[in-house]
Write a structure and sequence with these properties.
With 266 residues, this protein is α/β, with parallel strands linked by helices. The protein is built from twelve helices and five strands. It folds into two domains: 182 residues, Rossmann fold; 43 residues, no CATH class.
């Protein structure tokens, strides 16, 4: 059994070392021309490590959230949002359309081109039918595309899921309006999951009040003592005493990145 001094690797420590700069500061890019190619890898579900620690309680929460209009996974960086969603996406029976966002996607036309392309992967022919609407100006494209998407999935025989990862990079009001319109009118066969470092401006409080929102936040994604023990043993081969595990959980605040850094030091 290993008995060692455990350093602090919590999210508050990491934030203290960042100074006043923020990785989430986003500059609004120039509008993207319609002929620009889309990056296909942004539509791929991220690969996870073979020795990834499954967190069944969180997978269950995501499955339960499929009865709501929106599932919001919202924590600061390093809590494992993308890994969790990628694991769930490869285990669910629903068809999953994935889109990894970046600051260049703040142009409404480009954003919806990516969304349509992602959904086309699980609904063949959708892009061909919806593409003409993407030639409109960015001011009107959102509502037209969303209306077409709602109609396409209405009455679909199988559950489909649209995962938007890193939504915090989006600061376009037109995109937020389009997403709000989609969430308000989404058919039961289409589910939306948003991963973000901060609450998106999508009437989250109203959805919560109506019982139409499922949420996973910092308190949910923190590693429990049992998960910390399993991670140390299965991922790192470390068999730690109960006191060391308790100190590790306390000093990292259950932060996934902090646990990995502490494991490296041990």
């Amino acid at each position: 059994m290993l008995q060692r001094k455990v350093p602090s690797y919590g999210p508050s420590d990491a934030m203290a070392n960042l100074g006043t700069s923020s990785a989430d500061e986003v500059a609004i890019p120039e509008p993207v021309q319609e002929h620009d190619e889309l990056i296909a890898t942004k539509l791929n579900i991220p690969q996870i490590r073979l020795d990834h620690l499954g967190r069944s309680r969180l997978l269950d929460r995501l499955n339960q959230g499929m009865t709501q209009k929106l599932i919001l996974v919202c924590t600061p960086a390093g809590f494992g949002k993308t890994t969790l969603l990628a694991h769930w996406a490869t285990s669910t029976t629903a068809s999953v359309a994935w889109l990894s966002l970046d600051p260049q996607d703040n142009d409404p036309v480009q954003f919806w081109r990516y969304v349509v392309s992602a959904l086309d992967r699980i609904c063949g022919g959708l892009a061909e039918r919806v593409r003409p609407l993407l030639n409109a100006s960015s001011v009107i494209v959102s509502e037209g595309v969303v209306t077409a998407l709602v109609n396409e999935f209405q009455g679909a025989p199988k559950d489909s899921v649209l995962v938007l990862d890193d939504y915090h990079v989006i600061d376009s009001g037109l995109i937020h309006e389009g997403m709000a319109f989609l969430i308000d009118n989404v058919p039961p066969q289409l589910h939306i999951i948003i991963s973000s470092r901060s609450d998106p401006p999508l009437a989250v409080a109203r959805l919560r009040g109506r019982g139409q929102l499922a949420e996973l936040r910092v308190a949910d994604l923190r590693f429990t003592l049992a998960e910390t023990s399993a991670l140390m043993q299965e991922r790192w081969g470390l068999e730690l005493t109960a006191d060391v595990l308790a100190a590790l959980e306390r000093r990292t605040e259950g932060w996934g990145v902090g646990l990995h850094l502490a494991a490296l030091s041990l």
